[in-house]
Write a structure and sequence with these properties.
This protein is mainly α. The protein has 11 helices and no strands. Helix 3 (82-114) packs antiparallel against helix 4, helix 3 runs parallel beside helix 6 (155-179) and helix 6 (155-179) crosses helix 8 (196-225).
């Protein structure tokens, strides 16, 4: 009997498993699927409505002059957002130079050395608290530490404010990426005679790099879209960045804030165009983060 069962061809599935709307479970599955798809589309509606509005109102202003010319004065036609775009890149670079080493080294300590010690728990808790901190508080802190000390608004002060917002994101996402590295890979390296530091540098960090880069891109995306910290630190400038990070500098976020309330139509249009460019940059960074996350790790 056992032999005939083992050698017999697989029997066809029971008739009760066939797709039929006469089955109550099939109807329930179809209803829940429709509800899930509908709610997903409703959740995406604000995003697509914002993109549509930005493309309609700011798309007509897109041109080479928009990203290569200085911002115009009040009531003037022409001009662009070139200095604000460059200023945003400069501030983000300054913020990245400060935050990335701090966030990454803190993540290495938490994942590989700190464990569940009191210091590691305090650092981890502080990082989680900072992720929910209002960005304006980072601007006020940078204003008190840098602007008041130096006596001037500057790109460096803006970078410090942005770095405060970027550090917890880089630290927490990098820690999760480092912890996701299989333990057997670390044990194999240690078994071959590698030291703890060599294992971290040659095995753990390269394996976790896609996750680390994801955190970096998400942190950069957040920094690009912040306005309040820059109002307290970098302020604004109508001129090109001349290489001095100790002077006020333009940025897309502050330009949008200033021009959106302008009584002049042309400046309002530039605000819409700058919003479209800023949203596009943030979306590119977020999409790149998703691509990096899904990329298989090469050993």
């Amino acid at each position: 009997m056992a032999q005939s069962v083992a050698g017999s061809p697989p029997s066809s599935p029971p008739s009760t498993l066939r797709f039929s709307f006469a089955n109550s479970r099939t109807i329930l599955d179809a209803v829940l699927t429709v509800v899930a798809v509908t709610l997903s589309l409703l959740a995406l509606f604000p995003l697509f409505s914002v993109l549509y509005m930005l493309i309609v109102r700011g798309g007509s202003m897109l041109s080479l002059d928009l990203i290569t010319q200085l911002t115009p004065g009040a009531g003037m036609d022409g001009g662009g957002i070139g200095n604000a775009l460059l200023g945003t890149v400069v501030v983000v670079i300054v913020a990245a130079a400060i935050s990335l080493p701090l966030g990454f080294l803190a993540a290495v300590y938490l994942a590989e050395y700190g464990g569940d010690s009191r210091l590691a728990s305090a650092v981890r808790f502080s990082g989680k608290v900072l992720t929910g901190m209002p960005s304006i508080l980072a601007g006020v802190f940078a204003y008190a530490i840098v602007v008041v000390t130096t006596g001037t608004f500057s790109a460096f002060a803006g970078g410090v404010a942005m770095a405060i917002l970027m550090v917890p994101t880089v630290m927490l996402t990098s820690e999760q990426a480092l912890r996701a590295v299989p333990v057997k890979m670390k044990l194999a390296a240690l078994g071959m005679g590698c030291t703890r530091a060599q294992t971290v540098l040659k095995i753990v960090v390269p394996t976790a790099m896609p996750g680390v880069l994801t955190g970096v891109m998400l942190a950069l995306a957040r920094a690009m879209g912040e306005t309040a910290p820059l109002l307290f630190t970098a302020l604004f400038s109508d001129y090109w960045f001349d290489g001095k990070i100790g002077a006020p500098i333009a940025s897309l976020a502050v330009l949008i804030y200033n021009f959106s309330g302008s009584p002049f139509e042309h400046q309002v249009k530039l605000a819409w165009a700058a919003s479209l460019v800023l949203v596009a940059l943030v979306l590119i960074l977020n999409v790149a983060a998703q691509i990096v996350t899904r990329r298989p790790v090469e050993h």
